[in-house]
Amino acid sequence: MVSSQLPGLTKTRLCNSFQNQLLSMSIPDVPSNDVELDFSDVFGPLPTQVSIDVSIEDPEFAGPIADATELLYDDPIVICNRSHSLVGPSACVSHSLKLSMLTIQETVDSIGNVESISHETVKEIKELSVGDFVLQGSLKGSDDNYSRTQGVGLEDFEVMKVVGQGAFGKVFQVRKKGTSEVYAMKVMRKDKIMEKNHAEYMKAERDILTKIEHPYVVQLRYSFQTKYRLYLVLDFVNGGHLFFQLYHHGLFREDLARIYTAEIALAVSHLHANGIMHRDLKPENILLDADGHAMLTDFGLAKQFDDNKRSNSMCGTIEYMSPEIVLGKGHDKAADWWSVGILLFEMLTGKPPFIGGNRQKIQQKIVKDKIKLPAFLSSDAHSLLKGLLQKDPSKRLGNGPQGSDDVKHHKWFKPINWKKLEAREIHPNFCPEVAGNHCIANFDKRWTDMPLQDSPASSPNTNSNLFQGFTYVRPAASFLQRNGPGF
Ligand SMILES: Nc1ncnc2c1ncn2[C@@H]1O[C@H](COP(=O)(O)OP(=O)(O)OP(=O)(O)O)[C@@H](O)[C@H]1O
Predict the structure, then answer these.
(1) Is 190 helix (H, G, I), strand (E, B) or coil?
(2) For ligand 1, is residue 166 a contact (CB within 6 Å)?
(3) What is the arithmetic mean of pLDDT over 460-487?
(4) Count of alpha carbons within 13 angstroms of residue 149, beta-carbon side
């Protein structure tokens, strides 16, 4: 019987937990023939595998539309194919599905004994409507308990929109329940992270973000995890990518580029002073806030460094990679100053200096080609670019004994009052159109029109202790400091 296999859980309790859970589920209107349901939360913390049959009915069509689909607890992805002869793509017009039957077939205990349970039917659960299925679904149940016990969890947030896609999952605009605070929630699937062997990077991103507090660095407010995902809750920066604005402007005038570069240089210098290299500085990782200030984000490749050691990993986006990274000779924080140089070049000319051809060709250009500086740039801009885009890192501006002060004191930055800049008192003469802290007008419709659905993650097959200690809540004092205009 079930109870002998699942200590502390009777059959009835199991069924009840199904029922409660399913009452809070809704199914997204997926514009394809597949419906994905994540049942990972439904079962609770069972020490066994459970396989169930799922039958889904579409009330707008007669009869069941999905064949019974087997699901293992260890693999919470259920894909019920809605195509076949019964329903074609037009089934998508249906805005609700009815989960008519759930049958627990058998349990497999931790040592692999399989025991059949006579078909236990939980019938006629509820008519489900279109909506934010997965995130809502995972607000309850075991996955969530996992995060809740540690202070802050998914159920504290209401999901508003999809605003981007990262390497390991989507980024959502969320509101903290019971408040008007709006954040960006970066969701990362543990299975994907492990597949790419990136667990260390993710931990580093979280650790670095908890350490850093700077006016031009996107602030981490909370981090937590569930069984299958990691979550970073960051200040919501809604002026759009610097890249997006650059694309619209074609290129930036020197006075505007000067403010952005100065803000980025301040952030980079602060990171370096705290023993951190960013290693992925590029326009996509610089967002503009509502006041038009540059905000550095995405610390997914960042690394804490030791001044005596050089790093050897090949990282970053090729066009922004320094010659020493390309050559794999080992690199240090000077690589960030190279990327600042590439960014400045792109802001002033509309494109990075080394482009065209395949990856290998670009790498060759980075290492060998002399930089061509357009004549329309001022001589001070030429001088700064030459200093930052110095191929030999030991001679590069920012890497001398005075470090970032050499960059700050460069004559191109003469109009900048660094103290005022640090106090966010210098305002760029371009301000993005932003109507309130929830405004998503500057995000690509490709994301914001997406249904609020997070792809179900399969169970990570390695030790989840890898992510131990991920939870973080920023102390209240710094919330108050930063919640002034522009945040
Ligand atoms: N704090 C934020 N505020 C608003 N939008 C954000 C924020 N953080 C991320 N985004 C949006 O989500 C997108 C993806 O985020 P991010 O670059 O951090 O993910 P990633 O996994 O590091 O991606 P990649 O490695 O592909 O650059 C960003 O380009 C941006 O559009």
Answers:
(1) helix
(2) yes
(3) 58
(4) 8
Asked whether 161 lines ligand 1 (CB < 6 A), one says: no
Find the 190 Cα to ligand 1 centroid distance in Å: 17
Which range among 119-123, 268-272, 309-313, 356-360 has the greatest average pLDDT?
Answer: 268-272
The response to whether residue 218 sits with its C-beta less than 6 Å from ligand 1 reads yes
pLDDT for 314? 54
Q: How do residues 219-266 score in pLDDT, each as one tens digit?
A: 999 988 877 788 899 999 999 888 888 878 888 999 999 999 999 999
CB burial readout 203-228, b (16+ within 10 A) else e: bbbbbbbeebebbbbbbbbbbbbbbb
Residue 54 has pLDDT above 60, yes or no: no
* Closest CA to ligand 1's atom 18: 298
Closest ligand 1 atom, CA of 164? Answer: 12
The answer for residues whose C-beta is within 8 angstroms of residue 10's C-beta and 6 or more apart is 2, 3
The residue whose CA has the least distance to atom 8 of ligand 1 is 184
Helix axes of 334-349 and 242-249: crossing angle, nearest 10 degrees: 30
Burial class (CB in 10 A: 0-12, 13-18, 19+), 372: exposed
Would you say the CB of residue 300 lies under 6 angstroms from ligand 1?
Answer: yes
H or E element, residue 403? none
User: Could you tell me the distance, in angstroms and rounded to a whole number, from the CA of residue 287 to the centre of ligand 1?
Assistant: 9
